[in-house]
Amino acid sequence: MELPNLQTCRLISVCAKIINVMTRMKNAKKVAIIGVVSLMLFAVGVVLNNNQNDVSAYWVTLCNSAKCKEAEAAEVRAREQQAAAAKEKDVYKAKVLEYDAEIAVIQAAIDKTNEEITELEVRIDNTQKKIDKLIVSIKNTVVQLYLNNNVSDLELLAGAKSLSDFQTTANNQDLIQKKLKQLAVETKNAKAELESQKNQLEVRQANNQKRKSDASMLRAEQQAFMNEWAGKEAAWSAEAKAQQAAKIAAQETTWVNNANYGGGGTILPGDPNKGSYPFSNQCPGLLYAGIWQNDGLGMYKCQCVSYTAWKVELTYGNMPYWGGIGNAYQWIGNSINAGIPGAWGVPKVGSVGVRPSSGGGDVGHVFWVETVNGNGTINLSEYNYSAGDYTYRSGVAAGAFYYIYFAEW
To answer: Which of 24, 60, 286, 379 is deepest in the core (most CB within 10 A)?
Structure first.
């Protein structure tokens, strides 16, 4: 937002109110007032013309003072320390990730071994059930043999259909008993083998658990180192931001002492859609009427900050909510505090340019960088540079502005 433009808007608003009153007055009084209104409109034209052409192209050395240079050097040192800390942090982060991968492999082996142990336990249980059945069968056979042994051969023979039948029955019972005993031995051996395999798996599992525990311990050590360096990185980042803020404070003083109003340039028609600003059809009417409406992003409609905020939101979708701290001159500090990259005097297409306050109630100005020209000037679009409406300027001197790189955030 530009203070001279607010004065322009107030003049136009007053004119509109006078004209409104004139419609209710008699002709004699109207004639008298027409002269006053004409003079006021002439004054508005002078202001608008000055706003469009008050600055020629210029370049400014933005960091001349000892204080600025000291802060700049301190910021460079802090950025170097921050980068070194980040590098160390990444080394330990890589080791942590290696241990994570190793632990994952070990855990997979543990899970697989658990499945094998569970399977063996099922097989051992089934084998034990077979053994139990064989024992019952052997007992039944032994009982039957006992009963047969207590019956005389004459009684058995009498009960048999023939002599061969008698002999076959005796042989079968003896054979069954031997077979059952053999099966019982084989089944017990099979169970013993399964239990031996289970014991081996349990030993392997214990080793896996130890490997996992050792790897987890080493991972925790690397994580601690990583956290330590991350803390150092954050501390150096905060120091760099503080030094950057100190440098910018010094740069602003240099800028105010050396730069003129708004970078100059030539006003062109620009985008017929007025930068796709969603409230373009309400501008500059709202300003003329002295109406202040929130645009949904915490800014007032038709102001430079509203237009620029919406350009950021529509282009990148990452415009922070700076309601209450959204004056143009505050965008520099806001962006630094948010960690958004930026620099003095280095425009980029799609960046936001900021002119700090020049004092006396001026709240600064922001604009959208459309193109960067080979001669060091820029083309930009903005609102409320000229009578509260859309403006496209070409050939604007770029050196005295701070540029916020929302595209890199």
So the answer is: 379
